[in-house]
Design brief:
The complex is a heterodimer of chains A (321) and B (287). Chain A has 321 residues and is of the alpha/beta class. Chain A folds into 2 domains: 2-238, 3-Layer(aba) Sandwich (Rossmann fold), CATH 3.40.50; 243-303. Chain A is built from 10 helices and 13 strands. Chain A has helices spanning 55-62, 84-88, 107-117, 122-136, 151-163, 181-197, 209-215, 233-239, 283-292, 306-316; strands at 2-18, 24-40, 44-48, 70-75, 91-95, 169-173, 201-205, 218-223, 226-232, 243-250, 263-269, 272-278, 296-302. In chain A, the strands form 3 sheets. A 6-stranded mixed beta sheet of chain A has the order 5-6-7-3-8-9, sandwiched between helices. In chain A, strands 11-12-10-13 form a 4-stranded antiparallel beta sheet, with helices on one face. In chain A, a hairpin with a 2-residue loop joins β8 and β9 (226-232). Chain A is globular and about 75 Å long. Chain B has 287 residues and is mostly helical. Chain B has one domain (40-281). Chain B contains 13 helices and no strands. Chain B has helices spanning 16-35, 38-68, 78-95, 102-109, 112-116, 122-152, 163-187, 189-192, 196-209, 221-230, 233-236, 238-245, 250-281. The interface between A and B is large, with 47 and 38 residues.
Chain lengths: 321, 287
Amino acid sequence: MNIIEAYDLRKEFDIRVRAGRFKRERRTVAAVAGVDLVVQRGEMLGYLGPNGAGKSTTLKMLTGVLHPSGGRVSVCGLAPVPQRTTLARRIGVVFGQRSQLWWDLPLRDSFELLRHIYRVPAAEHAARLRRCRDLLDLDAFLDIPVRQLSLGQRMRGELTAALLHGPQILFLDEPTIGLDVVSKQAVRGFLAELGAKGDTTIVLTTHDLADIERLCRRIVVIDHGRVVHDGTIEALHARYGSQRRLVAELDEVPATLPDLPGVRLESAEGGRLTFAVDRTAPIGTLVSQLTATGVLRDLSVTEPEIETVIARLYRHTPAPR
Amino acid sequence: MGFITATADRLTIRNFTEMASLIRTLGASGFRRFATYRQATVAATVTNSVFGLLRTYVMLAVSAAATAVGATAAGYTGPQLVLYVWAGQGLIGVVMLWGWTDLADRVRSGDVVIDLLRPVDPVFAFLAADFGRAAYAMLTRFAVPMVTGALIFDMYLPHRPATYPLFLVSVVLATVVCFACRFLANATCYWLLDYRGVGMAWAVFSGLCGGLFFPIRFLPDWAAALLWFGTPGPSLLQAPLDVLTERDGWPVQLGMLGVQAAWAVLLLWLCRVVQRRAERKLVVQGG
């Protein structure tokens, strides 16, 4: 069942630019230029794009904060803008660079306020809070004012705040921005567990591709306001011909090197050979042939980095005229 | 317990208890937020009291000059003017005449998006929290200058018992009117993205037309009537202060409350209209 449906979603902004000493011209800029997006209930979707691609704008249209300039959109079966307050009870949103907590109050008080705002029965609220306290280790800082929390602690508080009313969809806009490695792992671990249960749909927008690799099977890449990829990470690798690297440490370089389709010797430094291997190439045969030389000392295979693939994708996407 | 249960829409106000509970909780949050900053409260109270001394001597001089020619200062006696000044100094913090830039700051930073993602009307949420803030200010920033003024000067104390509840109602209405004015001034930031100019204009207007710098009754009748009915200014401070000083009989006191109530309703409606307009054209700052 589709929980998010957006067809030909558009958002245009009018900006004024200087066109002379005293003259200003109005210019229309398309932030989102016809995005189609369908998300199934329980899906975990990575929504990627370079700065200014239209990610946050899309999210704000899906949550009812921004009025689309065109297209059709439905979230949880509701029209986001006209039914924004109804929708607000069914979605949770975390903006990595903004806070939904009350700056001057302890975390516990913020949660209590949210319970009243979302009219959550006390027992449900307590049960969800208990679960978040266990999974996100909140107990140590529940009574500290939000302004005194570290970024990692605050982000754990933000995630809890977004989930206390039991949302059907969780929108996450750069939830790990600025976090240290340990905090990132805590947040990712929590989201992975939440996603694994399959009852909360998660839409994750981030620049940290490790988040995506760890959490999302499906990724949608947007650039210049248009979707340029919608599918699995593997499909993205296949589409952009990304290659694995096989590094072989040999006692000596043999007279004949393996010659297989889709395998290319990238570098040879002494006995250290690096092969670029296509994803469809017979990497097992390559390993067998190297082993057969009798001088193989060590061997390692590295997967292609998603950063490289995404960077290539961004570079290949032309700006709309 | 799974995370999901929010499937049924319970938005309609079926139950006044829930609504009252929300107002109480948001109000309590406003109270606690401001109670956090005790040093700021002390500094503001001391400042209000110092200016109270200065203003009292000016008003007493005006009253003495009027008495010397066998008249009163626009109908106020000396002790009534003392009460007017000190209650006015206390009410600055209660109605929060100046210094509220929460909405403008949130628009500028883009944090206003968080307010729009909640299932409560932003005007209602800000107002409920403002009641809590006003309650805290009543206990601190109003009480201390009043006691200070009463200890140093010959201050008038209201004789009619009904004046006290009328004064409290007037203060609540003044808080609503002042909140709505502040909200509207801040809301200009949705279009201008800068509050400084509007904030300065609001500070001058509220002090001059609110009855803080001098009682509106000092002006000619036509000018006072123009301010009372043409602007919300006198509903900010002049009304509660005139109710408290018992310058007029209870029919006039009730009339002033009526004017305040009318302004409160009109301005809150305007806040909703402006907020909806702003939401339609909203461009959230900072991506």
